Amino acid sequence: MSDQENPPTDRQAAAPLRPMPEEWRRALAVVAHPDDLEYGCSAAVAGWTDAGREVVYVLATRGEAGIDGLAPAVCGPLREREQQASAAVVGVGEVEFLDHRDGVVEYGTGLRRDIAAAIRRHRPELVITLNHRDTWGGTAWNTPDHVAVGRATLDAAADAGNRWIFPELAERGLEPWDGVRWVAVAGSSRPTHAVDARPGLERAVRSLLEHRTYIEALTDEEPEAYCRSFLTGGARSAAERFGGVPAVTFELFPR
């Protein structure tokens, strides 16, 4: 059911946000495109890696259809390099690309299998993805890639632990992993939990700024001012539900 058909109640929208669980050591972040995590939750990632936790990024595409003035064959490798540099700023050393086609990612068993394989490979306790609902806050239409990857990630967290779903993965040496304890959705209009953004916010700005080619194609605003305004504004807007603390918000699905 879409968020338009089942919007959050006033009570849900005003409820205090709880701190994210801390009893985990490894997280896997699965999103559609380069820059999705930088717009979504990299300030939280910076804080987690500072604390010694391991975070790995998995991207369904290389973002090759994301810049109108660049052909996909040129754009894809460029955005891959920008993503790797961006991840390094917040302490993420491993970035994988699943090589689905940007703009036409399809929800289905193929996508679920690829994400389940990544979960089995990295064995996280926490899986992170981006808003999987039809809209952003009921006002802006979400992209099909975000919806497909978000929904597939929620499903793949369970698929990864079931040896009878995608048995071919075990044949490839990827044994079932039933250790995912939570899936956290960044950018949700129904957040339940949050992370203090302050320790990682400056690095989050620098991380988003690594996507300079994309940002310069997206806006005429000076890139650093644009990145800072977007990220600090989002963190401040969450503060009223998190004890006045600027925050990165998540909708948390326990498993």
Automatic annotation (TrEMBL):
Molecular function terms, GO-annotated: hydrolase activity, acting on carbon-nitrogen (but not peptide) bonds, in linear amides
Keyword Zinc attributed: yes
UniProt entry keywords in alphabetical sequence: Zinc
Keyword Zinc applies: yes
Matches recorded under Pfam families: PIG-L
GO terms, biological process: glycoside metabolic process
Top-level lineage group: Bacteria
PANTHER family registered for this protein in UniProt: LMBE FAMILY PROTEIN, N-ACETYLGLUCOSAMINYL-PHOSPHATIDYLINOSITOL DE-N-ACETYLASE-RELATED
Listed name of the protein: GlcNAc-PI de-N-acetylase
